[in-house]
Amino acid sequence: MARPLVVWIAGVAPIDSAGPRGRSVAHRLRPDAYSAPMNAAFPGLGTVVNVVAVVLGATLGMMIGNRLPERTRSIVTDCLGLTTLLMALLSAWEVTSASLTDAVGSGAPMLIVLGSLLLGAILGSALHIERRLEGLAGAVQRRVHRSTPAADGDGAQAHAERERFIEGWLTASLLFCVGPLTILGSLNDGLGRGIDQLALKSVLDGFAALAFASTFGIGVLLSAVSVAVVQGALTIVGVLLGSVLPEAHIAALTATGGLLLVAIALRLLRIREIPVGDLLPALVVAPLLTQLVVALR
User: Fold this and answer.
1) Which of 10, 16, 217, 252, by CA, is between 20 and 30 Å from 22?
2) Structural domain of 116
């Protein structure tokens, strides 16, 4: 199994010339125009879809997952990487949002995104976020993989099954709940900006659950509970932010997050292993930096 491909996935827009029927090219390329079909009927729908995908993937994995050839899993991951790149570009195009331009000026949005990434990267690398998260996953792996004296008989078999269950649950929970798509997707769901990212994450997690469940069994299935708790909490945060965070600040957050999605796509396509974890603080810096520019105008 190619675990590094999903470690940071799990676990994730819109120029103005006249177009046909009086519609501008900008309107047809706006992210909201494309995200409309994916608008959630209620906050948290993205998490529900994600949980169902993990349950279905894990169930299939326990039944037929080990029969899928590695080449098939690899090419599916490539397709998902390309789709992630498309979504990333649409999100990043929010840097041209009229609300953001009106709030900070025409020349500032790109600098805000750049500043957010730079400050976020400096902060994240200083805090060693990527290394700490990898260390946490490694510590869990070492703990569940540590050797224990085995005895013959049903007792030893029961102990082995228990270890296998714990390993599957902890590993899958870390993979599905730690990553930019988890944060971005859940926040966007709560903010009412659609569930596109969580829909993509659901596909990724579904295939990952299929692969892991073929080895770890039912523990992976129960990691769906972890997904529900973590993403549900982040969605609530998004709902609360949506009532106080101005549209310009949300646009800056979305554009910055789009570039993080580009980094995820590059990892999925095995082009470059960008330490996305160290860039996560940029999602906090973006609205703060936007507020600073607004205050100084």
Assistant:
1) 252
2) 3-14+43-296
Contact 178, 3 (CB under 8 A): no
Residue whose C-alpha is closest to residue 260's, from 158, 138, 113: 113
Residue 36 belongs to a domain: no
Cα separation, 81 vs 76, whole angstroms: 9
283 has pLDDT over 70: yes
In a domain, 20, yes or no: no
Domain total of the chain: 1
Residue 28 falls inside a structural domain = no
pLDDT digits (tens, 9 = 90+) for 77-99: 788 788 878 878 888 898 999 99
Q: Which amino acid is at 238?
A: G
Does the pLDDT value for residue 33 go beyond 50? no
Per-residue pLDDT tens digits for 83-140: 878 878 888 898 999 999 999 998 899 999 999 999 999 999 999 988 886 776 556 5
- How far apart, in whole angstroms, are the C-alpha atoms of residue 225 and residue 214? 19
Note whether residue 292 is domain-resident: yes
Contact 113, 259 (CB under 8 A): yes
Which residues on adjacent β-strands are paired with residue 18? 24
CA 195 to chain centre: 11
